[in-house]
Amino acid sequence: MNIAIQGFEGSFHQIAAQSYYGKQTTVECCASFAELVRKVKQQPGVDAGVMAIENSIAGSILPNYSLLKNSGLHINGEVYLQIKQQLMVLPGQTLEDIREVHSHPMALLQCMDFLEKYPHIKLVETEDTALSAKHVAQKKLKSTAAIAGKLAADLFGLDIIAPNIHTAKNNYTRFLAISRNGTAPEPDANKASVYFQTSHDRGSLAKVLTKIADAGINLSKLQSFPIPAKEWTYYFHADMEFESLDLFNKGLEHITPLTEHLKVLGVYKKGITH
């Protein structure tokens, strides 16, 4: 399968795509999430997409919820990826040789406890972790290291001289697998993503949440977004976890009369961490 991702070859998006769709997956690299969504919708050679939606430390990527809602695309599944940052160099280089470290600002920040041990090393911010690794390899930059994932080191022939240098070991990013056409839920599907609106009446959202709980459904995510055309009116993105499809379907029946514009984005199996 050819999967659209945000970022460059060797990025964490590619690792997530291979984790979900298999190692033989090829990727269509996109400069932005908007381009990713557009290619999944319109480009015949793109089978599906993998898009980051939230991080366990940084929180939700809010623009992506709106992109997803307005796209008409479907969620087929999810994958949780532990973000492991590696310090990589040209073969033969050592930590003592390094004078600069190149990476995305967020990656540099995630590794600051390690980097502060080497105050003589200059930190250079770039647009992408994997692209930093590619530049070190292609330009044969001696005395320069990159911070990126292991896949980047494998693809570009770099040596990892300091593995897992990220400070927070519980740093996970959740990615959604999205496609033009929805698929029928697997019999053991246990998670769904929906969005809905409620009236502006007092307690309207509380009534919906009570019905969800009464149906035996766990609400694992609730995110609100303003509706631009209506002042102080919101729609909600909800992730629901349940033990059976029957429970979910009954829950939908109970909340439908209490909501407006209810739409199921996808019913799928809860992701596991990689």
Automatic annotation (TrEMBL):
It is an enzyme of class 4 (lyase). GO terms for molecular function: prephenate dehydratase activity. Pfam families: PDT (PF00800). CDD domains: ACT_CM-PDT, PBP2_Ct-PDT_like. Residues 2-180 form the Prephenate dehydratase domain. Its EC number is 4.2.1.51. GO terms for biological process: L-phenylalanine biosynthetic process. It catalyses: prephenate + H(+) = 3-phenylpyruvate + CO2 + H2O. Pathway: Amino-acid biosynthesis; L-phenylalanine biosynthesis; phenylpyruvate from prephenate: step 1/1. SUPFAM superfamilies: ACT-like, Periplasmic binding protein-like II. GO terms for cellular component: cytoplasm. Residues 193-269 form the ACT domain. InterPro entries: ACT-like_dom_sf, ACT_dom, Preph_deHydtase. Keywords: Amino-acid biosynthesis, Aromatic amino acid biosynthesis, Lyase, Phenylalanine biosynthesis. The keyword Acetylation does not apply. This is prephenate dehydratase. It comes from Chitinophaga rupis.
